[in-house]
Amino acid sequence: MTKESISKRISDPAWKELTKLIRKRDKNTCYKCNKKGLQIHHIIPFKFSKSDRPDNLITLCQSCHTKIDHEYSRTGKTNYIRQMINCAKVRNRRDE
Ligand SMILES: [Zn+2]
Predict the structure, then answer these.
(1) To pair with 22 at 20 to 30 A between CA atoms, which of 14, 32, 55, 70?
(2) How remote is the CA of residue 25 from the centroid of ligand 1, in Å?
(3) CATH number at residue 15
(4) Cα–ligand 1 centroid distance for 74 (angstroms)
(5) What's the predicted TM-score (pTM) here?
(6) Does the CA dihedral 83-86-88-91 come out positive or negative?
Protein backbone atom coordinates (compact mmCIF):
# COMPACT_ATOMS: atom_id res chain seq x y z
CA MET A 1 0.00 0.00 0.00
CA THR A 2 1.32 3.42 -0.87
CA LYS A 3 1.56 6.30 1.58
CA GLU A 4 -1.00 8.18 -0.42
CA SER A 5 -3.68 5.53 -0.09
CA ILE A 6 -3.04 5.27 3.68
CA SER A 7 -3.65 8.97 4.19
CA LYS A 8 -6.72 8.70 2.00
CA ARG A 9 -8.00 5.85 4.17
CA ILE A 10 -7.45 7.61 7.50
CA SER A 11 -9.16 10.77 6.33
CA ASP A 12 -12.22 8.78 5.30
CA PRO A 13 -15.18 9.84 7.51
CA ALA A 14 -16.35 6.22 7.82
CA TRP A 15 -12.89 5.18 9.07
CA LYS A 16 -12.95 8.04 11.58
CA GLU A 17 -16.34 6.91 12.82
CA LEU A 18 -15.07 3.34 13.15
CA THR A 19 -11.94 4.35 15.06
CA LYS A 20 -14.09 6.39 17.43
CA LEU A 21 -16.13 3.27 18.20
CA ILE A 22 -13.02 1.13 18.69
CA ARG A 23 -11.51 3.68 21.09
CA LYS A 24 -14.77 3.79 23.02
CA ARG A 25 -14.91 -0.02 23.18
CA ASP A 26 -11.33 -0.10 24.49
CA LYS A 27 -12.09 2.72 26.95
CA ASN A 28 -9.37 4.87 25.34
CA THR A 29 -6.69 2.70 26.87
CA CYS A 30 -3.79 0.93 25.24
CA TYR A 31 -4.48 -2.76 24.67
CA LYS A 32 -0.96 -3.71 25.74
CA CYS A 33 0.08 -1.44 28.60
CA ASN A 34 -3.24 0.06 29.70
CA LYS A 35 -1.98 3.64 29.36
CA LYS A 36 -4.06 6.17 27.54
CA GLY A 37 -4.21 4.89 23.97
CA LEU A 38 -5.12 6.87 20.92
CA GLN A 39 -3.93 4.96 17.90
CA ILE A 40 -5.85 2.25 16.12
CA HIS A 41 -3.88 -0.82 15.15
CA HIS A 42 -4.79 -3.67 12.82
CA ILE A 43 -4.06 -6.88 14.75
CA ILE A 44 -3.35 -8.66 11.51
CA PRO A 45 -1.87 -5.95 9.29
CA PHE A 46 -4.29 -4.67 6.72
CA LYS A 47 -2.00 -5.63 3.86
CA PHE A 48 -2.46 -9.30 4.87
CA SER A 49 -5.93 -9.34 6.37
CA LYS A 50 -7.68 -6.68 4.27
CA SER A 51 -9.93 -6.49 7.31
CA ASP A 52 -11.24 -3.36 9.02
CA ARG A 53 -13.60 -5.46 11.13
CA PRO A 54 -13.72 -4.40 14.80
CA ASP A 55 -12.28 -7.76 15.87
CA ASN A 56 -9.15 -6.93 13.88
CA LEU A 57 -8.75 -3.49 15.45
CA ILE A 58 -7.37 -2.46 18.84
CA THR A 59 -6.41 0.78 20.54
CA LEU A 60 -2.73 1.30 21.32
CA CYS A 61 -0.57 4.10 22.72
CA GLN A 62 2.07 5.49 20.39
CA SER A 63 5.00 3.63 21.97
CA CYS A 64 3.28 0.22 21.89
CA HIS A 65 2.13 0.85 18.35
CA THR A 66 5.68 1.48 17.19
CA LYS A 67 6.96 -1.58 19.11
CA ILE A 68 4.23 -3.86 17.83
CA ASP A 69 4.83 -2.92 14.19
CA HIS A 70 8.51 -3.77 14.66
CA GLU A 71 7.66 -7.03 16.43
CA TYR A 72 5.63 -8.19 13.50
CA SER A 73 8.51 -7.91 11.06
CA ARG A 74 11.09 -9.09 13.62
CA THR A 75 9.43 -12.16 15.15
CA GLY A 76 7.30 -13.32 12.26
CA LYS A 77 3.59 -13.82 12.01
CA THR A 78 3.14 -16.89 14.26
CA ASN A 79 5.06 -15.48 17.25
CA TYR A 80 3.36 -12.18 16.85
CA ILE A 81 -0.10 -13.75 16.90
CA ARG A 82 0.87 -15.76 20.00
CA GLN A 83 1.81 -12.53 21.73
CA MET A 84 -1.49 -10.96 20.76
CA ILE A 85 -3.34 -13.97 22.19
CA ASN A 86 -1.49 -13.51 25.49
CA CYS A 87 -2.44 -9.83 25.54
CA ALA A 88 -6.07 -10.74 24.95
CA LYS A 89 -6.00 -13.27 27.82
CA VAL A 90 -4.53 -10.72 30.21
CA ARG A 91 -7.06 -8.17 29.14
CA ASN A 92 -9.99 -10.55 29.50
CA ARG A 93 -8.89 -11.41 33.04
CA ARG A 94 -8.66 -7.72 33.88
CA ASP A 95 -12.16 -7.04 32.60
CA GLU A 96 -13.80 -9.90 34.50
ZN1 LIG B 1 0.85 0.99 25.31
Answers:
(1) 70
(2) 16
(3) 3.40.1800
(4) 19
(5) 0.74
(6) negative
